Amino acid sequence: MGTRDGDRDEERTLLTDLAAGLADLGWVGTRAVGATFGLRALDPLEAPFLFDNAESVSRALTIEVSAELASLVESSSVVGLAVLPGAMRRPFGLTRSLVRVSDWRGAVVRTHASLVGDKTFRALGAEPVLRHAGELRRPRPAGIDGMDLHADAIAQWGYAGYFTWNVPLWPRTVLLVANRRSLDRLGHELRSVVNQAAESMRTWVASGMRRADEHERRAVPTQTQIVLATPDELAELRRAVEPVYDDLRHDRIAAVVLDQLESTTASEPQ
């Protein structure tokens, strides 16, 4: 299902269209689920600085965890099938570097349909805004100071700017989701086939995550300057986004998921 030209909120549009039965199956960033349906179970996947790299995301999203998280996306109109790991998004500055908290203050930052993303940028003192793809197709998009990106996207768009390499904001994890009515019409056998296909997709994507971090460093284009935050600057950034974690813990289910993810990442080998 394609996006609509000029749609600044395309992920939310895709989910609402899917819920309305305009499509049977789809995939969308997990970040958009809470903003669209108010179901916050997947929002902890975007908790800022929770994951260090793409491989840690892949380790956290085992087959069992992927299926468990997807099952929490249940409504009268949609059903989650699997959650797929994704590459890390880092701060990319167009008009300035985004390294320390003071760099973010007053910056206009492109965001998406994401409650966590919106709250994170506001906690850092930035102004989050939505933009559609057509507004970004230029060497220096007008009206924004930066965004969260990964290296392949920087190269694809042909941007020059500042890429804060050691500030992993969050991964772009993806939800495979189905229209409930369409899925129920399939019957048990065909529904099992769909579930097996979703599991196979998760396994295939996860296998690529083991090489994603090494590939990303090589993919940074030559016109982009890699910048690094100091340990003190990293600590200041983490303190600034603590209200985002507090907000997640106000939701009963999101709090449980966040605790599980924090436990998983804390036990990883250093």
Explained architecture:
- It is a single chain.
- This protein has 270 residues and is an alpha/beta fold.
- It has one domain: 3-Layer(aba) Sandwich (D-Maltodextrin-Binding Protein, domain 2).
- The chain is 47% helix and 17% strand.
- It has helices at 10-19, 31-37, 54-60, 63-71, 101-104, 115-123, 133-136, 151-157, 180-184, 187-209, 212-219, 231-240, 242-249, 252-266; strands at residues 25-29, 78-84, 88-93, 108-111, 127-130, 146-149, 161-164, 170-171, 174-179, 224-227.
- Helix 6 (115-123) links the parallel strand 4 and strand 5 (127-130).
Percent range for β-strand residues:
15-25%
The CATH level-2 architecture is identified as: 3-Layer(aba) Sandwich
In the CATH hierarchy, the third-tier topology is known as D-Maltodextrin-Binding Protein, domain 2
CA-atom Rg in angstroms:
18 Å
Please give the largest β-sheet: 7 strands, mixed
| Count of beta strands | 10
Q: Number of DSSP helices?
A: 14
